[in-house]
Design a protein that fits this description.
mainly beta, about 130 residues, 7-stranded mixed β-sheet, 4-stranded antiparallel β-sheet
Length: about 130
């Protein structure tokens, strides 16, 4: 059974940082591209970041570009999202997702439909 579990969320003051983790079980994470999405209350889920199977290629949504870094540790079956300079607009539930292998090892996917497995999410709240 495939399971993705996010952790690392919480309450942080504006200007602070968090590192979110996405741990996978039931699959070999190295064979999957991984993405992070977020959904704020009353808003649609939006793309945050993605990393290719190879780890060579990364991508970021405009709202976090320059403030976020995605990385992966395949030995630990875990993907990380480091978020810095947080602001109240970053308040949301953050989800990680994994895409079944297709296409190039260096490809990243920014659309939700590219992902087959989703975690339950972790809440990030940024106070002003």
């Amino acid at each position: 059974q495939v399971q993705l579990v996010e952790s690392g969320g919480g309450l942080v003051q504006a200007g602070g940082s968090l590192r979110l983790s996405c741990a996978a079980s039931g699959l070999t994470f190295s064979g999957y591209a991984v993405g992070w999405f977020r959904q704020a209350p009353g808003k649609e889920r939006e793309f945050v970041s993605a990393i290719s199977r190879s780890g060579v290629t990364t991508d970021y949504g405009d709202s976090v570009k320059g403030r976020a870094t995605i990385s992966r540790d395949n030995a630990k079956n875990t993907v990380y999202l480091q978020m810095n300079s947080l602001n109240p607009e970053d308040t949301a539930i953050y989800y990680c997702a994994a895409s079944r292998p297709y296409g190039s090892d260096n490809h990243v996917y920014t659309g939700e439909r590219s992902y087959n497995y989703w975690g339950q999410g972790t809440q990030v709240t940024v106070s002003s």
